[in-house]
Design goal:
Keywords: Kinase, Transferase. The chain is of the alpha/beta class. The chain has 18 helices and 23 strands. Helix 10 crosses helix 15. The relative contact order is 0.13.
Length: about 525
């Protein structure tokens, strides 16, 4: 899983450059691309996340901006590129969560990230009302998680109403970064549809707001919406001073990270399936079909006529990282050594079966992680491969739902941090019984953001052509014939275990109070005071 350095070939004096910024749940990446969309310089910073009490995952908007500004400043300094040659800036970021600001752009409290589950009670209340839930699904194209803006706003109205009263706009992650760069408050379709957008009309919906149980006056928080590739502002002098960019550099509206990664993976094409194993297991097929279903999100893309039907859960790197900590692995060297041990096991040797629900589950908040089938001869390598297989089985779970309504071409495109492991790529191919190709880019999200910016700046003819001409894929990895029976058995065992544990999970949830276990009530009470 080693990283590769940026392209270092010389550039002609007339070259123009494109900056892509990708703000994820755990890391901020800034990548400067030349006019051939090859990376010239890359910088990364940790994306700050605070967990003050159970279920809370938030961050300071100021600290996030410092991380972004530092990464961009490093890229500009190390690239040696004249900042006057940067044609445009594209930004992408993780979706959902809640970022409240004033009309002047000042943050109103910390940003709440999509990993936050404090609003699980509000989410359960909505889920218990089929009529309201149907409105949310049919109008907004998806069922909300506890980390969705609608549920988080309900939580704030109950626990911190003054914070909502002080806010003038509700934004998403990439929007607050663009706000610091340009002073402009708005969002794009790909992020707006995670909350109160009617995906049929591509406009904000008072009906969806009402279905969440929110007052109509909160329509005042919903910002203007632009297509992702619209130039909506220019770098302010104060932002130029801390980033090394030139004041006046165009900045586009930007897009949700799944959309940006799909572009950077060459997959934002109808009939293409892209999987990302990162902070979330993201499984999306690009389509023009408006079909909705509780098991996936029908998200508008860079324009309202294009969608990604995506089925997601936080069951990838959170589960992988938890397993590494459990096994005492604390650095990249130990991680790579353990992956090598797992890869050396006979491919069809039985390993423990893992349900990777340490952080999240699409089966409901009551579902928890499970490690079963453990024997005394199993080693750390067996446990790690079992954890990887569990993560892969979630790709199977998500794509099985999508496959009931959509069709896609092969090979399947795979990205994300786990895709750097040849073992993981082979496991995905074996489990899905399909060829899998990995995009030849360390930072697909930043590349996708840069492509959108390049089209807006007139450097590229279209997003579609850029995907064809620029995005490179590794040779497809095929499923092995010998693995067919093994994965059929593992898949069946996964389904049987989920079904068997369902009643136990529900009983455990019913034994808790409506507000959760006592320890969590105490944590929340501390915040509420």
């Amino acid at each position: 899983m080693a990283e590769h350095g940026p392209h270092s070939a010389p550039h002609e004096s007339g070259s123009r450059f494109l900056l892509g910024i990708d703000v994820g749940q755990t890391a901020v990446k800034a990548v400067l691309h030349d006019d051939r969309l090859l990376p010239v310089a890359v910088a990364r910073r940790a994306s700050p996340v605070d967990r003050p009490v159970a279920r809370h995952a938030e961050r300071s908007q100021d600290a996030l901006w410092v991380a972004v500004a530092d990464a961009v400043s490093e890229v500009m300094a190390t690239s040696g590129v004249d900042p006057n040659l940067v044609a445009a800036v594209g930004i992408t970021g993780h979706g959902d969560g809640l970022h409240l600001v004033t009309a002047a752009g000042a943050p109103v409290g910390p940003a709440i990230t999509a990993m936050d589950s404090r609003a699980h009670v509000e989410a359960a209340e909505l889920a218990s009302d089929p009529d309201r839930l149907r409105v949310v699904l049919e109008r907004s194209g998806q069922l909300p998680t506890p980390g969705a803006a609608g549920n988080l706003l309900r939580w704030l109205l109950r626990h911190d109403p003054e914070r909502v009263a002080r806010a003038d706009a509700m934004l998403f992650c990439k929007d607050v970064v663009r706000l610091r760069l340009t002073g402009e408050i708005s969002t794009d379709y790909s992020d707006a549809c995670a909350s109160f957008l009617d995906v049929g009309t591509a406009t904000w919906s008072a009906e969806v707001l009402d279905a969440y149980g929110l007052p109509a006056e909160l329509l005042r928080l919903l910002p203007p919406i632009n297509p992702s590739g619209t130039i909506v502002g220019r770098v302010l002098p104060e932002a130029a001073a801390v980033t090394g960019l030139v004041a006046g550099t165009p900045v586009v509206s930007g897009l949700h990270d799944v959309q940006a990664s799909s572009i950077g993976m060459g997959a934002l094409v109808p009939g293409r399936l892209a999987l990302v194993a990162g902070s979330f297991s993201t499984n999306g097929v690009t389509t023009t079909q408006p079909d909705v279903d509780p098991r996936w999100q029908s998200r508008l893309s860079i324009t309202p006529d294009l969608r990604i039907a995506m089925s997601t859960s936080a069951t990838a790197s959170p589960s992988f990282d938890w397993t590494l900590r459990l096994l005492g692995v604390t650095d990249a060297t130990g991680r790579d050594a353990l992956i090598a041990e797992a890869a050396a096991l006979p491919p069809e040797e039985p390993v423990p079966l893992v349900l990777p629900f340490q952080s999240d589950s699409p089966l409901g908040a009551e579902a928890s992680a499970t490690l079963t089938g453990v024997r005394d001869w199993h080693t750390r390598a067996h446990v790690l491969r079992g954890a990887l297989e569990g993560i892969v089985l979630m790709h199977r779970w998500h794509t099985r739902a999508l496959g009931e309504r959509f069709r896609w071409d092969e090979p399947i495109v795979l990205g994300g941090g786990l895709a750097r492991s040849p073992l993981y790529v082979q496991l995905v191919a074996n489990a899905l019984r399909a060829p899998v190709t990995v995009v030849d880019s360390e930072e697909a999200g930043a590349l996708g953001a840069a492509i959108v910016a390049g089209v807006a700046a007139g450097l590229l003819p279209s997003v579609e052509q850029a995907q064809r001409d620029v995005v490179r894929h590794a040779p497809a990895v095929l499923p092995t014939d010998a693995s067919a029976a093994y994965w059929a058995g593992v898949g069946t065992a996964f389904d049987e275990l989920v079904e068997a544990l369902g009643p136990w999970w529900r009983r455990r949830a019913e034994e808790s109070s409506p507000d959760g276990p006592a320890s969590e009530r105490d944590d929340r009470a501390g915040v509420e005071r």
